Every structure is written in structure tokens, then in C-alpha cells.
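Reopening: C-alpha cells for the zinc ion complex, inputs below.
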Amino acid sequence: MSTVDEFTDEFTEANETSPSPQSAARRILIITCMDARILPTPTAAFGLPVGSAFTVRNAGVERDSEALRSVVIAQQRLTTREIRVLHHTDCGLETFDDNVLRTQLIRNPPKPGVVIRSTVQSMSFLPFKDQRQTVRDDVAFLREHPLVLAGTVITGWIYNVQSGRIERVLD
Ligand SMILES: [Zn+2]
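Re-run output (same inputs, fresh job):
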């Protein structure tokens, strides 16, 4: 049996006994990067069982309001009362800046002949240079946001993609 088959079987087994999405057990929401090296799942990185937390993923984690829509739904329609912001080492968002990506897009538009200059110039792709500061900024953004419930426990973490260890970033 291949590794993928084994993983799929394990995943299916774990999910057969999972509670409904509205379960009171799912009070934790993890916001993390889309990087495929955070394995096997962001939930497992914290030692939590499969199906015990909601997960929102995007390029570079929170950074501005990209995950906010999901946070509001998880708190208002589901049961989330704790948010863990999980960055990781060796993130691709540390390898470029906005101007590099803007220039690349303008020189080679995704749809040939379609002018995208003004769209691209008003858009930030939210790269960063100081990872620890970025974790603190993301946590502060959520703590201070008027749409996030008062009393929500919000913490920041870094996952080491080489060792698989997880470290809490104190603010
Ligand atoms: Zn990343």
C-alpha cells in the first residue's frame, strides 16, 4: 500500500468518529500558512486530534484581514473561543517584496493582452521580513479587531518545518 493510501485510510478512520462541525469540542481556530510542509495537519502540529479544531490557511498566515471573514463565521455561527496564529520557518513570503511580484505580473500578465497595471499597483501581497514581529502583528490585529469576540484567547506560534517542533511567540 502506498503512503498516500495509508494516510487516506488513517484520515478516513479518524473522520468516521468525528463530531458535527458545530460541536462544542471545536472551540479552537488555527490560522496558518498554505505551505504544504506543515504536516500532517496544522491540528496535529499542536498535538490535537484530527477534527478537533477549525483551520484557515492562506499564503503567509493572517497578514491583514484575509482570514477575518472565517474568524467571524467561526465565532458567530460556530463555537470558536480560541485562535492560534501559526507561522512557520522558511516561509516563502520572506523571499520577495511587493514590487518584485508586481513587476513580474505586469511584464507577463496572466491573460495576455489584458491590462492589469492599476489592479496590481493597488494590491499588496503581504510579504514580510521579520517573522517574529509578523506573528506579534497578526495577534495584535485580531485582539484589537472590533469583530473578534471579547475574551477570545489569541496566541502566536512558529512551526519549525525541519524539526516539526512548535514554539510559542510571547508578546
Ligand atoms: Zn508560509
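The first strand starts at residue 28 and ends at 33. The pocket of zinc ion is lined by residues 33, 35, 60, 88, 91-93 (CB under 6 Å). Marking as resolved unless the reporter disagrees.
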